[in-house]
């Protein structure tokens, strides 16, 4: 059994690397740990149903393999492959060994997945240990020689220089790896016990199932005792290692020596010790081979009951009733908020913080789908004012609301209104204090912290999981910026955005914006976090979101962020009878009871019929997959993308053939300034909305911008591009002589245009535009020559930009893209532009208006200066 316990530890740690639970995900390490676990479990006997039923079970798990994301798909995949191999008669030795190990690993992984999901949900609500466990942890730490006291949810430790605080959290005491080991160990004990094995008293006697309850409970209690003893020792070892590293570190590196708390390799090493201890205490031996009973019965009523029970449970967890839509009247509260206002237009006149760090673009974007209005500083927050809206948005308040105003908001929700509250990191400008005056009435609060990603602090990638809330079902993969976390406490609701691999630091009050440095400090909390919370109150709905930066002008059109804001408002603009607490609790109790009864009945029938756990698992995965597909379809039907009521021209920034660096957050990813994030941000200043797209989705807009393409251009892409322009689309292509391996001509040749980097003009002087465009001239260092079409910009008579009509559309080629890279545009949006940089802005605006669709703020839609001049 020693090998089996080691395998259980390896599989437990594989989740940490596969999910990136504490440090960035590493799929290569995850795969190696998984393979090692499978290889070590090859001697665990697993009984399988007859061949026909085994193949049917393997087939039933294929939808789950297709639907589940990594690393969750490993369990059904191993189970399906193992059953198929055993049914088809895998050769002896290593193929049969791996098939057997795959089946055993699948059972262990299933148990670990369920336990990890429960642990993640629990710790995302509250990381802190109960006081009794915090005191017990302090006792063990003191015994190990470390001076420790307890202050609430903190361990107060005498460090090498001064007293430090360490969070007494579940992740410090036990960790996700320990939870997975415990759950996997229980599954392992079930596998090697006689519970799953059938035998007969004589060769001709009917099979029966032995239930060694006493022995099984003894083993489980022994395993739990080992884990309970190991947990505080693990925590004290980590604290001791941190102190040791701090003593040896120099001043520059001392602040980051606490990364030992989020090191998955250390978890792997410590889980090895736990596996050895378990093998010494839990002495059960794995049978050399399974008994030879009558072949187990295959699928029957037991499988149907298990599938039905899992289906009902899945529906309870995944399904969120959307309800009927309201009128779509959205009111944004500007009262008590001087941060990120919607009142300063995102145009071509105002720059710096005032022009970019506001919600004007988000307000205009939402105005395409909803009827938008503002509650200004001069307006009252009372019942009559709130009566003419369906959704109220309270974002980043910088002063507190009065008790009467809070009461009016609560009554608004109770009567059936929707409330969106948007907070930010570290209680900057006392935003979270003001928000929590309102949020407490709905059972949750915004924490005064800041979340960083372990390893890459400001690259917080989020991908919508399977079976997600309908709020985020249309959201592509996106990046967070500088989020706080949300404390749901014990309130009823859902974490519609939950993330792992993050650590939390408190405010740095010595900084103007309270923003702490991204350092690994001993007082950090780490693990799973709630970043968006949905609940209901009375007849209304409430959402809390923890990262206001995402909806500022410089971020809102990055992938996923505008879609997230639209989804939250659309969800709040619906009502359902299930929003009421009593109705939902009654449904949850009924569905949960039915699910448990069905599962218990299926288990009882399965034991009586000796069907085997593989049949039950296949039925469970089939029930899960079928219900998941149904729930996803129901969500998409109930909450589709809302129709456009007042559309703005849509410009797509193409990412199939272009890989020019763009922003993924507030500032440039390319620190050398050679990216084009500023160019992308400046496009909507002329009056349109933008998005990024790849593949065929790139042709869904009214205009298409391709920035310095370097990827190969497939034939289907050229054909689709030609059709797009011929049908009236507008295409703007930037090229530059500093681009290595440019593929711009593969895009331009079908339209009779060509870019010639070999004949680049260098230090040629001023860029001169066609007089009809009224674009100012500007100095230019280098450009490609553009041949074909009608020249619209020249240098000493050499054409460097040209346009051509193609069908009902327009194509513009520009050879001096580097004039608009991030360095040339001022590096980032925060400072006021110098006169030379401002001149480049004006050149860009003129070029964009001449090439792309846009909307004048005083008119309906303007098609471009070329059309306005009669071209």
Structural write-up:
The protein is 40% helix and 18% strand. By secondary structure, the chain is α/β, with parallel strands linked by helices. The strands form 7 sheets. The protein has a 9-stranded mixed beta sheet with strand order 21-20-22-23-28-27-26-24-25. An 8-stranded mixed beta sheet has the order 8-7-9-10-18-17-16-12, sandwiched between helices. Helix 5 packs antiparallel against helix 6 (94-125), helix 6 packs across helix 9 (175-192) and helix 12 packs parallel to helix 20 (613-638). The radius of gyration is 31 Å and the shape is globular. It starts with a helix and ends with a helix.
> Which stretches are poorly predicted, pLDDT < 50 over at least 5 residues?
194-209, 289-295, 858-871
| SS strand fraction | 15-25%
Provide a count of the helices.
25
Please give the radius of gyration in angstroms. Answer: 31 Å
Largest sheet: 9 strands, mixed
Strand order within the widest beta sheet: 21-20-22-23-28-27-26-24-25
The helix content is 40-55%
| Termini Cα gap | 82 Å
Mean pLDDT over the residues:
90
Q: What's the oligomerization state?
A: single chain
Q: Find the structural class using helix and strand composition.
A: alpha/beta
Number of strands: 28
Q: What's the overall geometry?
A: globular
